[in-house]
Design brief:
By secondary structure, the chain is of the alpha/beta class. Helix content is 54%, strand content 14%. It has a 7-stranded parallel β-sheet, with helices on both faces. The protein has a two-stranded parallel sheet with strand order 5-8. It is globular, with a radius of gyration of 19 Å. The chain starts with 7 loop residues before the first strand and ends with a helix.
Length: 291
Amino acid sequence: MANNNKRIAAVTGAASGIGRALALELANRGFDLALADVDEKGLEETECLAFQHGVDIRTSVLDVTQRQAMFDWAGKVVTELGSVDLLVNNAGVAQSGTVDGNDFGDYEWVMAANFWGVVNGSKAFLPHMREVGRGHIVNVASIFGVCAQPGMSAYNASKFAVRGFTESLRQELDMLDCGVSATCVIPGGIKTQIAHSARLSPSLAELHSGPIDDAQMRDDFLDRIARTSPEKAARIIANGVERNARRVLIGADAKFLDMLQRLLPSSYQRLTIAATKLGIEKVRKAQQSAS
């Protein structure tokens, strides 16, 4: 039965990265948790860590792309724990490849998880929140939903979509004055394993003027771009929810690129191309040194 004296948070993608860190941060702040992920082992590890905070935890092995499963999960959470005060649609995937080289399945795979997963979660939990007159939906986008990157069209499209969806949702909720709110989270480079689990298309070789070692490129991303720890990101998100922020930028890189896009809405693309070429050259030199 629900414990009406505690706040309830539901988090997708809770097996690792930002999702795990946020689950632990919310547990530390006294939230009971409903955690979901496709990674059963990682989910169990998160549960064990969060259990140390003495909160009630329910886990579900769940694919956010499965709409009915998301609605079933929302109903189960509300029945077992009570009305959800906070929903974090965090689950996502990454893929890199050129528009010409990607097939339609690449776009469908990324959009299913990154965009439709957010829509499914929001639609599943929002009616329950409105029924009790309270709740907060947090949707995790990306700085790549603000600034586009070459070779990232599928990921860019999904995260731009999440940002637009969330900003529209927030405006609707403000107009309705129904006690429910929404926040769009825009992380920069976070030290998670998404770079290692990303799908890389062979078509990237054309952009890179030749093949580049996949492992080296993933490691370079983590070393050069991923600067913020998941734990710090989780604290920033939780604090943003507490002040009912419309958007939460995470990391100096996200803040810089957001400002750059505002100041140079078209010209930033040329700077991005130059920076990408420098990054590719760095990876090539590292490969040559290793060999």
